[in-house]
């Protein structure tokens, strides 16, 4: 399912002719007024020719973990900080910086702009791994946080926000659902529904989860919350809160479906 905000953005850019194609990767990214964005394999280059009015450069949200964020050709440049938003990532540009200059964002895997869901397939062990960076987030606050010390969906302060992952099952079977979940001290107790839905909506299975206090939102504990019985086909897992106990629901780094030998 394509996020409506992404679809509207792309349609507007196509109609106005303001679409830049990254030739090396096949990914499409919007043109910008302060310079240009280039995708080269596992890195994004933000080439800054003029100071952006907002003081920030931004790029569309990626389905990628961030490995590093540096100035290209300027190892002693001022520190850079990524600020992830639900649909875009922002980086503040110091007013004292000499222009033109280039910011280099390096990722662990080839760059993928998050315009459509990633559909996971079973690995060689039959496991289906659903990482945070492939989550489709919905709502006002929930987002993927790609920084190396985070690598999670987080900022889950609105109980109406929810997330989904897409995957395909090749062989019928029973799968344990394991969630790597983190929650800040004193924030445990939120109630969450983990729902597995077939593509045509004919199959729907629900596992309840009460969020565990792990001492920190990025202190992740893997929890086996129940079993899904799945036939071959395409599915999605939806994680929808029913209640928020304190400041935020939880962080989720990964969901894994592990086949059970019967």
UniProtKB/TrEMBL annotation:
<protein>
    <submittedName>
        <fullName>Uncharacterized protein</fullName>
    </submittedName>
</protein>
<keyword id="KW-0732">Signal</keyword>
<feature type="signal peptide">
    <location>
        <begin position="1"/>
        <end position="22"/>
    </location>
</feature>
